[in-house]
Amino acid sequence: MTGLKVAAAVFALLVAMLLAQLMFAPQLEPSLPMTHGMPWQIEHPGPGQSRVFGLTLGGAAASTLADALRLSPQQPKLALLAPQDGPPSLEAYFESLSLGALTGKLVLSIAASATDLEAMRGNTATTDHLASGMRKYALNESDRQRAERLPLAAIAFIPSASLDETIILQRFGTPAERIRQGETLEHFLYPAQGLDIVLDSKGKEVLQYVAPADFERLRAPLGK
Questions:
Q1: Number of domains in the chain
Q2: How confident is the model at residue 102 (pLDDT cuts 50, 70, 90)?
Q3: Where in the chain does DSSP place strands (E)?
Q4: For the chain, which terminus, N or C, has the lower number of CB atoms within 10 Å?
């Protein structure tokens, strides 16, 4: 498995773990007004880049974790997550965040070099073993400050309100591709936007964003 696929698998596993903890919520009404900063309002500040929720993905001007901290007065949970057979990834998790008229959970994947990740893991004083088999390493204060200066690699938003196919097509348009995964999941893929919307018939939906230039990070784990 390549480093890109491992990173994507770690990010997907974290999102799946968060989804398993969520309860069903009321349906999002199609008449929701279009206000600035909504999940479907994706801008393209430069070639291969995207901007959503005021955060830029891709390129030299990519937003940092420090930029994301301005979205909310609450501090996110920040940790290294490492699968049993792969390298760690650096993630920040907001339990509840208001984005325009919507609320939900926000997961940020932070771009860090393998050297930085290993150094941070070596500096941790506490480690938790998760039920999934993944290990979670809490960062010390010095490494937290270092992480705040690093750029974002991906964003996952898990809205409190439920989505359905009608709302997805109305707000985001026709996807370039739709892929079913198992019995309950369907992926709506928008490569030009750097977006994968995962519709779950028995759970919560998740919107995964990367820079369009990095869209293969979302597409590759889904196979042909």
A1: 1
A2: confident
A3: 50-52, 55-57, 77-82, 89-99, 102-110, 127-129, 135-138, 152-159, 177-181, 185-190, 195-200, 206-209
A4: C
Cα separation, 104 vs 158, whole angstroms: 5
> What is the rounded distance in angstroms from the CA atom of residue 104 to the CA atom of residue 76?
13
For residue 205, give its domain range. Answer: 3-20+44-219
What is the gyration radius of the CA atoms in the chain, in angstroms?
17
Helix axes 141-148, 114-123, angle to 10 degrees: 160
| pLDDT beyond 60 at 45 | yes
Token pair recorded at residue 73? 């007065």
pLDDT digits (tens, 9 = 90+) for 47-84: 999 999 999 999 999 999 999 999 888 889 998 998 87
Burial 65-103 (b: 16+ CB within 10 A, else e): beebbebeeeebebbbbbbeebebbbbbbbeebebeebe
Residue 35 maps to a domain: no
In a domain, 27, yes or no: no
Cα gap 174→222, rounded to integer Å: 19
DSSP-based three-state secondary structure for 118: helix
- Measured from the Cβ of residue 52, the count of other Cβ atoms closer than 10 Å reads 22
